[in-house]
Amino acid sequence: MSDTLPRLVLKFGGTSMADAERIAHSASIVAAEARTGRGVAVVVSAMAGETDRLLSLATSLGGGLGEVETDTVLSAGEQVSAALMALALQRVGLKARAVMGWQLPIEVDGPPGSARITGIDPHLLDALLDQDTIPVVAGYQGVSADGRLATLGRGGTDLTAAAVAAALQAECDIYTDVDGVFTTDPRIEPAARRVGRISHDEMLELAAMGAKVLQTRSVEYAKAKGVVLRVKSSFLDAGSSAGTEVVCPADIAERRVVSGVAYARDQARLSLYGLDADGAQAAIVFSALAEAGVGIDMIVQARSRSGDSVNLEFSVEGKDLDRALAALRRHLDEMPGSACAHQTGLAKVSVVGTGLRGRADVARTLYEVLRSRNIAVRMAATSEIKISVLVDSDWLEHAVRALHSAYGLDQS
Amino acid sequence: MSDTLPRLVLKFGGTSMADAERIAHSASIVAAEARTGRGVAVVVSAMAGETDRLLSLATSLGGGLGEVETDTVLSAGEQVSAALMALALQRVGLKARAVMGWQLPIEVDGPPGSARITGIDPHLLDALLDQDTIPVVAGYQGVSADGRLATLGRGGTDLTAAAVAAALQAECDIYTDVDGVFTTDPRIEPAARRVGRISHDEMLELAAMGAKVLQTRSVEYAKAKGVVLRVKSSFLDAGSSAGTEVVCPADIAERRVVSGVAYARDQARLSLYGLDADGAQAAIVFSALAEAGVGIDMIVQARSRSGDSVNLEFSVEGKDLDRALAALRRHLDEMPGSACAHQTGLAKVSVVGTGLRGRADVARTLYEVLRSRNIAVRMAATSEIKISVLVDSDWLEHAVRALHSAYGLDQS
């Protein structure tokens, strides 16, 4: 059996590495996989809270995210947890060794604090696996061309895991504190069910919009390299987590139009009226917002009733609203005839599914369900695999539950 | 002026790196030296308490000192503090960069947890110094031939500092929480004075016997490589610490027969009677104690009164006594005619000085002073630069004060 199973990378996040007891439990999950005889490698995050502690130390001395010395501070967190995991594996009788990014090396490029992986040399990993030794790779970090440590940004250990899996032609199990991805947030809808299989694109939408299970770049990386990802719970006994498998759409046998209902709280809507029809003013607006560091989510552009100008609406996170307004006002003064309005107290609900493309009935259901419950749609936008609407915050939970039920997501 | 001053390595221990405030203060000391224009490098320990915290984490997962994975855990402490110091230096307008042992590299050999430095490549340090960038070297660690992190044992950062200074042909200031080495412990004798200059050998005796300021191996390394060491306080303002300079005996102008009075509490005396005169049984005894991990300090061998056997006396630390007795008894049963006795509740007082060699008057003074105060000498041993005696613990402080005064150490 062992020769037929592909190699496996197991990634453990901070909550799975929170203390000695949790590390030992995570090690028991690794041990169960290793004892099937398949080649196993591990990638770990820093112990829960450690990255924040280290960042706070760096900040207290004038450092900050995006500085190379801060990256040297932060990298220590995963160095410690990798070696602790190696010790835990040795204690249960396995051969294991901590491996830092610079030892492979994992080569990275780009700014400190948000570097990207440009290459992984699998030589040492292969050599360790050939000796039945489990490499425990420190996540979140690599070494730059000038020999400095650099980190990959928050959630970067997911990316390390995907990249190590690609380098080893392995599958990749991401262990976290939830047993996979759910059709919606179980805190809102207790009937939410675990999704067995999901495409990378659906995962991206669900992850970015509430179910923050997998870091976005790691899913993109896995998609590009064709790595099979699974999201599992390290809080269950070894072998007990069914989890969610993230695969290519072609590998999803059980087709379902809608995979899940995601949401985001604290959204605001910005409306700009009377902009030039040629789009020049819209370009100025977006560039001003980008400079102010405001992330824009949904965008709707419509011709004005008179037809000689356009109206632009978009959503931003509530915390960014004041910054967005300040940036806009500086420019709107120079755009005669333009006007600006905003609305707060909104939330976003998104219906996500690869089977959604071109299915007008999905949108129809959405509008019918919300209308029948007197939930006003303040804004709507679609992509190939999702429909998002803004609703009043007070109605968020009601909308999520209604849509979850309407698309049959509570049915097994 | 700057071109005439030799390069300088400044080492800061854990108490000098205890928190952001102390790191910033230590950085101000570095900045003052750097602003003279001389080439400056820094070597740092982990923040106070951090190595213990990390070791405790490793221990809780089955690790321990002397294991390679534990070394990976422990090395993180100095990685963090080196980058924090670099940040603190940048904040005061200096160029600085953290450098780990593996980046130079600092090559080490020998068992994990007590590795020894076999080589330092000064190339990167030279390049940084040429760019007016202060290298901040993570102490206590290097990289082994197989690419693993390895630590140098407790106090290993002193050794790193001495080795970096030797590689850079620099002088080496060791910053700690006391302003140099004192003629004795000021807590026992308030009239104790700071020693201005001291030889490496005297430093070794004083460091090993109470004034635990410098790690033994670092002094030996500095002696072998001719590195000038200074012990200074990081708790004073920049430039305010006079400190103690550790130099070759030839460089000590002001000759003083006795440099200091050191002491150690909780000593025990072991006495073995009736051993073979040819020394074979003594060899068995010492080998048994070594196997049991018992450190032996003073050793006195004397012929028995009858002349056909020898008596052997030695001192051990009180905490090692039970282990020593157990090891001895297994062997004494097989040595007919031998007997064993022990005495506890003793303390060691040592008079140290390079000028002591061959000066019988020093020993005479010692015996006279102790006898005049009715302090019994339970054992005595000499080396080239010290005379040590065991006295009853209750009399320790009295003996230290009396000897300190008798040798004129309270006189400026």
From TrEMBL, chains A, B:
Residues 7-232 form the Aspartate/glutamate/uridylate kinase domain. Gene3D superfamilies: Acetylglutamate kinase-like, VC0802-like. Substrate binds at T51, E78. One of its GO terms (biological process) is homoserine biosynthetic process. Its EC number is 2.7.2.4. InterPro entries: AceGlu_kinase-like_sf, ACT-like_dom_sf, ACT_Aspartokinase, AKii-LysC-BS, Asp/Glu/Uridylate_kinase, Asp_kin_monofn, Asp_kinase, Aspartate_kinase_CS. Pathway: Amino-acid biosynthesis; L-methionine biosynthesis via de novo pathway; L-homoserine from L-aspartate: step 1/3; Amino-acid biosynthesis; L-lysine biosynthesis via DAP pathway; (S)-tetrahydrodipicolinate from L-aspartate: step 1/4; Amino-acid biosynthesis; L-threonine biosynthesis; L-threonine from L-aspartate: step 1/5. It comes from the Bacteria. NCBIfam families: asp_kinases (TIGR00657), PRK06635.1-2 (NF005154), PRK06635.1-4 (NF005155). This is Aspartokinase.
